[in-house]
Amino acid sequence: MPDTYSSMSPTITAMIRLDHMHVLSAFHRYHADTAWWRKRAIVNSVCAALEIHAQLEEEIFYPALAEVVNDNPTLSKSRPEHDEMRATIAKLRATGPEDAAYDALFHKLMSEVMHHVADEETMLLPTAERTLKNELRSLGARMTRRRLQLLGERPRDIAVNTAGTFPIATFLLGALVVIGATHCLPKTRRMRYAD
Ligand SMILES: [Fe+2]
Ligand SMILES: [Fe+2]
User: Fold this and answer.
1) Which residue in 24, 117, 128, 187 is deepest, having the highest Cβ count within 10 Å?
2) How far is the CA of 76 from the centre of ligand 2 (A)?
3) Cα–ligand 1 centroid distance for 6 (angstroms)
4) Sequence ranges of the domains in the chain
5) Centroid of ligand 2 to alpha carbon of 168 (angstroms)
6) d(CA 42, CA 26)
């Protein structure tokens, strides 16, 4: 990642917190008496956001943290917790909002995610901010580039953003910086960076 991008990018920890905030605020929009079509829109949007967020953490954040900490128990259980969350997402997708089990499954997902997010925000993010101080922006830029790729593979998830839950703001925050930096760079440097 060129320095120009990295120095202007939000930090990876800021991006992770913003993703968490968007998903947690989406949880508050879901109620037992919410219309079935709105329940489904919220669930679809939350599930897509969680899958992308988990993949970004597994590909970029966790490996960077693993290089600077030894045997961190919170880090060790992070991937298995993502897998539990993926299993609940699969069950939700196999169940319709008209099914009596739908609310219970979504509450299970909420509980798993809130527990996981609390651990990340109280343990992993502060640890990263202490130990990866000089890399937080370059990691943030890497996360934005990877998010762009993943969103490109799932255009429908952007299209179904009607419930306002998908963390587009996190994506835009980084993407605007990358696009802006690309636009401002002299043409020869842009060509070199594009390689
Ligand atoms: Fe996570
Ligand atoms: Fe997270």
Assistant:
1) 128
2) 14
3) 23
4) 3-194
5) 16
6) 7
pLDDT (tens, 9 = 90+) of the chain, 195 residues, equals 456 667 789 999 999 999 999 999 999 999 999 999 999 999 999 999 999 999 999 999 999 999 999 899 999 999 999 999 999 999 999 999 999 899 999 999 999 999 999 999 999 999 999 999 999 999 999 999 999 999 888 877 765 554 445 555 555 555 555 555 545 444 444 444 333
Tell which residue, 44, 38, 54, 18, has the closest CA to residue 156.
44
Alpha-helical segments (H) within the chain: 3-8, 12-27, 36-56, 62-66, 73-76, 78-93, 101-119, 125-131, 136-153, 155-159, 168-184, 187-194
What the block records as the tokens of 105 is: 């499954």
